[in-house]
Amino acid sequence: MKSYHLNKLTKIGGIVIFTLFSSFAYAQNNPLDQGDFWSRVRFGGGLGLGIGSGYTDIMVAPSAVYDFNEYFSAGLGLQGSYVKSRNFFESYIYGASVIGLFNPINEIQLSAELEQVRVNLTYDNEFKENFWNTALFLGAGYRAENITIGVRYNVLHDEDRNVYNDAFMPFVRIYF
Fold it and tell me: Among 8, 69, 120, 126, which one is most buried in terms of CB atoms within 10 A?
């Protein structure tokens, strides 16, 4: 029952966020009246690499956003990661996200991001656990040019079944 409720909540939340950001952005500035689509698309994402004694963590997360105007942007992202801790566990995580960004002033960025990832874990080559993890992040950050540094909160965080240790997560977002 909890799984059904979470999936229903996730779908409703994603539709509401996408509709709000799309409606406000379109009402502010109709993109069809202004030039080329690709001139409004910015690309970015994240790369991560952590290597230690018996530990490996590799992450790739490309994304793109469309700037409806100077205040609103929305986009899509993909992510994939591999983490291995020798003699303990190995995981593969992959998925996608939808993000909406609002910049009320140049220095402040508010965000809403719906993320769905598949988690494949193997513990000591014996026990396997595979599950879907859904996150709905609400965030705020300080923006300077194309870089934003801030914190986001996963409103769907479940300590018993989540790929993230904490509901709060810092972020650095870069789009070119």
Answer: 69
